[in-house]
Design a protein that fits this description.
It is a single chain. This protein is mainly beta and 594 residues long. Among the domains are: 29-44 and 51-203 and 276-290, Collagenase (Catalytic Domain); 302-377, Immunoglobulin-like (Sandwich); 503-593, Immunoglobulin-like (Sandwich), CATH 2.60.40. Helices cover 11% and strands 35% of the residues. The strands form 8 sheets. Strands 1, 2, 3, 4, 5, 6, 7 and 8 form an 8-stranded mixed beta sheet that branches. Strands 18, 20, 21, 24 and 25 form a 5-stranded antiparallel beta sheet that branches. A hairpin with a 2-residue loop joins β33 and β34. It comes from Sphingobacterium ginsenosidimutans. Residues 179-281 form the Peptidase M43 pregnancy-associated plasma-A domain. InterPro entries: MetalloPept_cat_dom_sf, Peptidase_M43, PKD_6.
């Protein structure tokens, strides 16, 4: 049996036309208002062709960088005498809307023709299971090497009227009702042709419903795990004034997904859907003929990070085109010297983050494609840098240890690679077995996301126990090095029985408070480091204490303290991190409160 599935329910008095500039229009209100339901007739009860399942992680990443050009032919269906039919002057608008949806995922659509079918039989297309005219329409005129996009006055069956439908999933053929062609229905039906199911696919479409928590996302619903479970969207559970879901019941569907039912809120695909689209284009024999292997897509060249006024160039610009530039989100940069071949980007004062720089290439025939590049905007500051391991530790001579640079801006050790301002880490290691201290340079640097964010060091053998200090500094992505430190100190001994803490912690059971004081181990380290006259001048009695709970929330701090002991407030049961900053070095240790 041929199943007809609902998508694009259009409540009265709401127009689903999403113009290419992002604004909403009432131009088609009267037409939409005449139909109580605009449905999608694509049959979801078909086998899942999961071309993406066989991809390795490497192949998946390579796939996402591929660019595909798709050919599309429009067929305007009119009466026998050539009267009526879709206005061909609006086809460039369909193309612009399609490219706005698909270009962010490296899929570009080009129409290679507009043809007419003068046959009154197909003007109002009957798709009832026992009288399905869609195959006859395809047979009357079609191209074997393009998506065939048919435009008819209406599509109907005994179950209702339809906005559009694809012949299959995947497929090279789709049909859209004239009044819905300028809406997201067109991108929706092309999505079916390129192997996407409805986000709400379930038992009514020959599948199983996706659980609200997504636990069965790879085998139910639309088979895409980054599209949240969708109970089916429409006028009863979506606030279309804000495009938010109001249905509850544990669901959090993506109202903006093009393959959903929230017709005029739809404007994007997820990364998982993009992977499925690209995998189908790479692996489906049905889709291979529609791919244009000779297209030369323009590219934006320029740095990935903007520090000053920076020129970005647009390469391979087609002849007889115009180019407009924009950046989103707005307000972060200023664009100047805009031309067909490039644009200058200047980071606005006090702004940081990332932008999507976009070149909109407008063709003489009305088509438009969008070329984008993600550009990072570093903040002004290089963060404080910390080390892991961060507490005073005993390390055995001759042993090999790893040290990692981290971001200490919020008081807890974080991966420095997550900070958008940092480009590189530099290291300074001093050996205090000599006087004055000597530099250790024979350590191995490892490249991570941030260059040299970790090192491997073998502890030199000496005749007696000694202390080393390791101090890192960070390089801003715009070129300037930050200050050294704070660093850390470590005991190097012939044999290590245990780790050492900078602070001794005692507990007074009567008032249930902990007291912190400097340990004898810390005194030894301080004596070793600051024994030389040069270092002694930097010795200070001032220090900072910070205490964080298990969620990294600061529960106590005291800055520029001079007392030899610190009383902490009463602490509830849990694990805490104590941080001491003194004389340019930072030490951490844990405290378990039972």
């Amino acid at each position: 049996m041929y199943l007809v599935m609902s998508c694009n329910r259009t409540p009265l008095n709401i127009d689903e036309v999403a113009l290419s500039n992002g604004t909403k229009s009432k131009a088609h209100f009267n037409a939409a208002n005449n139909a109580s339901d605009l449905l999608c007739g694509t049959n979801g009860d078909v086998p899942n062709q999961a071309f993406e399942k066989n991809l390795s992680a490497f192949s998946r990443q390579a796939l996402l960088s591929n660019t595909y050009c798709i050919k599309i032919v429009f067929y305007i269906v009119r009466d026998n005498n050539g009267v009526g039919g879709f206005n061909a002057a609006d086809i460039p608008t369909i193309m612009r809307n399609l490219n706005d949806a698909y270009n962010p995922h490296n899929i570009f659509l080009y129409h290679v023709g507009v043809e007419y079918i003068n046959n009154s039989t197909y003007v109002d297309l009957d798709v009832n299971a026992n009288n399905n005219e869609f195959p006859g329409l395809i047979s009357s005129k079609s191209s074997s090497n393009a998506i065939n996009f048919y435009l008819v006055n209406s599509i109907f069956s005994s179950q209702g009227s339809y906005a559009g439908m694809a012949e299959n999933i995947p497929s090279r053929n789709l049909v859209v009702a004239n009044q819905s062609a300028l809406s997201t229905t067109s991108a929706h039906e092309v999505g079916h042709c390129l192997n996407l199911f409805h986000t709400h696919r379930g038992p009514g479409e020959g599948g199983c419903a996706e659980a609200p928590n997504g636990s069965n996302c790879s085998s139910c619903g639309d088979y895409v795990c980054d599209t949240p479970a969708d109970p089916g969207l429409g006028s009863g559970n979506v606030d279309f004034s804000t495009c938010t879901y109001i249905g509850g019941n544990g669901f959090y569907p993506a109202v903006n997904n093009i393959m959903s039912y929230a017709a005029w809120c739809r404007d994007r695909f997820t990364n998982g859907q993009a992977t499925r689209l690209l995998a189908a284009l790479a692996g489906s024999s049905v889709l291979q003929p529609i791919i244009n292997t000779n297209c030369n897509i323009p590219t934006i060249s320029g740095p990935n990070t903007v520090c000053n006024a920076t020129l970005f160039s647009l390469n391979n610009v087609p002849a007889n085109t115009s180019v407009s530039w924009d950046a989103s989100p707005g307000g972060l940069v200023t664009l100047s010297n805009q031309s067909t071949n490039g644009v200058t980007v200047q980071q606005n004062s006090g702004q940081s983050g990332s932008i999507v720089l976009r070149a909109r290439i407008n063709y003489a025939d009305g088509n438009r494609i969008n070329i984008t590049k993600i550009v990072e905007l570093p903040g002004a500051d290089v963060p404080l840098v910390s080390l892991n391991p961060s507490s005073m530790q005993c390390m055995t001579m001759g042993s090999n240890r790893y040290f990692y640079a981290g971001d200490n801006s919020s008081g807890s050790f974080q991966n420095i690679s997550n900070n958008p301002n940092v480009a590189e880490v530099d290291w300074q290691i001093l050996d205090y077995s000599t006087s004055p201290a000597t530099s250790i340079t024979n350590f191995q640097k490892y490249s991570n996301t941030v260059i040299n964010s970790s090192i491997s060091l073998t502890m030199p053998n000496r005749s007696s126990d000694y202390v080393i200090t390791i101090v890192p500094r960070l390089k801003h992505k715009c070129g300037a090095w930050g200050e050294w430190g704070p660093g850390h100190s470590y005991f190097i001994k012939r044999n290590c029985a245990s780790s050492f803490n900078a602070l001794d912690v005692s507990y007074n059971s009567s008032d249930r408070r902990h007291k912190l004081s400097f340990s004898e181990s810390y005194r030894e380290v301080e004596k070793a480091i600051f024994s030389s006259p040069n270092m002694k001048s930097k010795l200070s009695n001032n220090f900072d204490i910070h205490v964080y709970d298990s969620s990294n929330k600061e529960v106590f701090s005291k800055k520029s303290a001079r007392d030899t002991s610190i009383l902490l407030p009463r602490l509830s049961t849990g694990t805490y991190s104590i941080e001491l900053l003194k004389n340019g070095y930072i030490y951490r240790q844990s405290l378990e409160v039972k």
